[in-house]
Each structure stands twice: as structure tokens, then as C-alpha cells.
Amino acid sequence: MNSSLERYLKTRSAWAERGLRRLLRTRTPQPISFLGPVPETLRRSMGYSLMAGGKRLRPILVMAAAEACGLPPRRTLKTACALEMIHTYSLIHDDLPAMDDDDLRRGKPTNHKVFGEAVAILAGDGLLTWAFELAAENALELGLDGRHAAELVRTVAAGSGVRGMVAGQAVDLQSEGRGRRLSRDKAKARKLLEDIHTHKTAALLTASLDAGAVLAQASPARRRALQRYGRAIGLSFQIVDDVLDRVGDKGKLGKKGSDLANDKLTYPSLYGIEGSRAMAARLTADAHRALAPFGVQAAPLHGLADYVLSRDR
Q1: pLDDT per residue over 7-66, tens digit each?
Q2: Per the structure, how many domains does the chain have?
Q3: What's the pTM?
Q4: Per-residue pLDDT tens digits for 100-149
Q5: Band of pLDDT at residue 261, cut at 50, 70 and 90
Q6: Which pLDDT belongs to residue 180?
Q7: Is the previous residue joined to 37 through a cis bond, with omega within 30 degrees of 0?
Q8: Number of Cβ within a 10 Å radius of residue 295
């Protein structure tokens, strides 16, 4: 990673961290005065997972897309935090016994191991719904008209919901434990795998970019370009994730690899390690091409595409 990208990621990640901490400290919602404070156990459970570290990639993508479209990135901070909340909710629920049944996340016990399954479920629910409150507040603060405010909520909901991330999770669950059997029909398995991760992984990354573009009131052409970029880096991200699950340093990853044990359909199981890496490289090239309309304004997004490809955790 070059030094300018490293500084960029460090700065934007720090903005997101501070924003999240500030939100967690806020005791009473304003100006909706008929609502009381967040129950303390729920706050601690949400904060436990939200502040457990991570790359803060989704907030950074919100800010970088807005910046590429001419809006100062700090003005998108509430929506950036909202996307991280949605991502964190999905991790809390993914780790539950009914889903992936993981006991480690980022080197720490998973949320349900600390707070119990019921509170972990509520913490995920809380983060998901809080995210939309924050996105709406951001739209109000920027003075967006009704059309743009509605479009902001729509793109975040679609990317995280039943045609986006949740759809991918549902199909992924259906294929769990059937990886070897599904792999017998290579063409069908490859289509299924792409469909899963276009939704499960790429949809929320794309929604992050699109949210930043909507906040900046970008043109439809610019939004489409960012959506193409998001799909490409989303699939690249998942391929790298699958490879790291097989060959990555488990200490750096902060979790045990579970894909093989769960007989999951993955890119390495269909394409091999080297074939998967080559596919991720091709998708990264597609991402770079998608950014052509933005010129030098997209330099951070170019750097992020390369970072996603080369990461080791």
C-alpha cells in the first residue's frame, strides 16, 4: 500500500471511529423527545461489536464516492456510520448458532458469546434500524429535497435487504453443507456462487458508494459508474476473503477458517487458489475502468480497489 493511500485510509477510518463513539455516547435521541434513552445492556452489546475494530471500508466508500462527486466527505459522516452499523448488524447475526455458529470475530468472542443470543439479536436489530435514522438525519442536515432523501433511503435499504445482502445470505445458507455436491455441475455452481456474492457482499459495498453519490446529488451516469465499480470490488473482496479463509494467517484474520468445515461453496473450491486470485485481479481491472468518468477525483477509489485485492486480513 502506498503512503498516500495509507494516510487516506487512516484519516477516514479515524473519522468513522470518532463518529461511531460519539453516537454511542449520545444518551437521549433528539429532537424526537418522546423517546427515552437506549437501554444500557443494549448499548453495551451494540458498542461491543461496533467498536471491535475492522477496516471501516463501507464508511470510507461512502465518503470517497461523495468526494469524487464534489461533496466534502465529512458532510456524509452520519450515513458513513450508518453503513458500518448495517455491516456490523450482519456480522452479529452471521455469527449466531443458527447461522455460521462462530465463537470468534476479530480475535474476540462473538457478541452472543458475551451477551447471550437474545441480546445479540436485538443488538443487530438495533444497529440496522438506527442506521436508517442516521441516514435520514444526514439528508435533513444537507437540505436534500424529498426525491434525493427518498433515494438515499431506498438505495441503502435495497443494498442491505431482501434483494441485496439478505438475499445473498439466504441463498448462501441454502447451499451450506452442499458445497461438494453442488460443485459437480461446474457451470451451475459458478453461476450460483456469483449470484450469492453479488448480493451478500457486493450489494452493501455498492450501496455505500451509491449513498455517497446520492448525498452529493450526483448524475445518473456517475451513479451507474460507481455501481459498476462497487460490484467489481465487492466480488473481488469476497474472492480474497475466500482465499484468506483457506491460506490466510488466522492470527491476522482474528477468526478461524470455517468454509471447509461447513462444506461451503467458495471460489477456491471451484476455481482453485490461483484461479481465484486471477479472477480477483480481473475484477480489479474492471473496477479501475469503471472510474474513468471521474478523472483524478477518483484516485482514492482506485487505491481502494488495489487495497481490496492485496489485503491479508
Answers
A1: 999 999 999 999 999 999 876 556 676 778 889 999 999 999 999 988 899 999 999 999
A2: 1
A3: 0.92
A4: 899 999 889 999 999 999 999 999 999 999 999 999 999 999 999 999 99
A5: low
A6: 75
A7: no
A8: 9
Q: Which three cell numbers stand for residue 154?
A: 431506498
Count CB atoms within 10 A of the CB of residue 265: 25
User: Alpha-carbon distance 206 to 194, whole Å?
Assistant: 15
For residue 4, with 0-12 CB atoms within 10 Å meaning exposed, 13-18 middle and 19 or more buried, which class applies? exposed
Q: Which H or E element spans position 253?
A: helix 250-253
Pairwise CA distance, residues 190 & 276, whole Å: 12
Q: Residue 208 corresponds to which cell in the numbers above?
A: 455505500
Angle at which helix 77-94 crosses helix 57-68, to 10 degrees, equals: 150
- CATH label of the domain that carries residue 30: 1.10.600.10
**HEC secondary structure over 156-186:** HHHHHCCCCHHHHHHHHHHHCCCHHHHCCCH
Range of the domain at 259: 3-310
Mean pLDDT (whole number) for 171-199: 85
Give the helix/strand (H/E) hosting 108: strand 108-109
Residue 49 belongs to what H/E stretch? helix 40-50
Distance between CA atoms of residues 94 and 88, nearest Å = 10
pLDDT by residue (tens digit) across 67-85?
999 999 999 999 999 999 9
In angstroms, rounded to a whole number, what is the distance separating the alpha carbons of residues 116 and 243?
31
SS3 105: strand
Residue 102: which of 287, 261, 310 has the closest Cα?
261
In this structure, what are the phi and psi dihedrals at residue 109, rounded to the nearest 5 degrees? -55, 140
